[in-house]
Amino acid sequence: MGNSPPPSSSLFPVLLFARICGVAVAMLVLSWALAFKSSFLPRSSSQEDLIYSVLHPLLMVIGFILVSGEAILVHRWLPGSRNMKKSVHLWLQGVALGSGVFGIWTKFHGQDGVLGNFYSLHSWMGLICVSLFGVQWLMGFLSFWHRGEARLIRMKVLPWHVFLGLYTYGLAVATAETGLLEKLTFLQTRRNVDKHGSESMVVNSLGLGLALLSGMVILAAVSPKYQSLQTKLMYSRSEPKNLTS
Question: Which UniProt keywords apply (predicted)?
């Protein structure tokens, strides 16, 4: 495999803003989890359950959404061959998948059990999202290590792989937004958290940061200028050489 085309310079502002949003999201979710621990106290009030309750947003936002977003951006900034980009992409997606699975397990670990935590739109969307992500990663893993298949088949599957990857990433962000709304509504109605207080501002800012981040990541992934360059190179490599008489 040869080297893939270099990223267009027009993508630099998008990539930079995506990184800024990612850092802001990480700082916000860390601040929420560490500065407002009382909001994550479960009914049992045990230290172990508190740790699992705090770990859930950290794993799902930083480990799942941020890492999977970085895996998507790898194809836009990392220099080198396609195989190296694919291996880094696959490794990062594996880390994101492990974080997502463990993040869901932290919710099922509590005293309420599986059914007690599996009742809301957020929980259903989260399970569907991680399941789709697992299927997507497995398909990528098999495709990466089994390169004997016909190139035409791989080219036909690639658009569906890209679509499912971006759809799952968008679904993950939407799932996080429903979780933030569900948690904030609970805090404001049952624990008398001020709607204009600092915690409400942190959670709302986190939701806004996730929305901006997802937009930048998806924009970088479907950038028309980069895609047009990639298509031209692909067709130029696949065109048969002119025969001279």
Answer: Electron transport, Heme, Iron, Membrane, Metal-binding, Transmembrane, Transmembrane helix, Transport
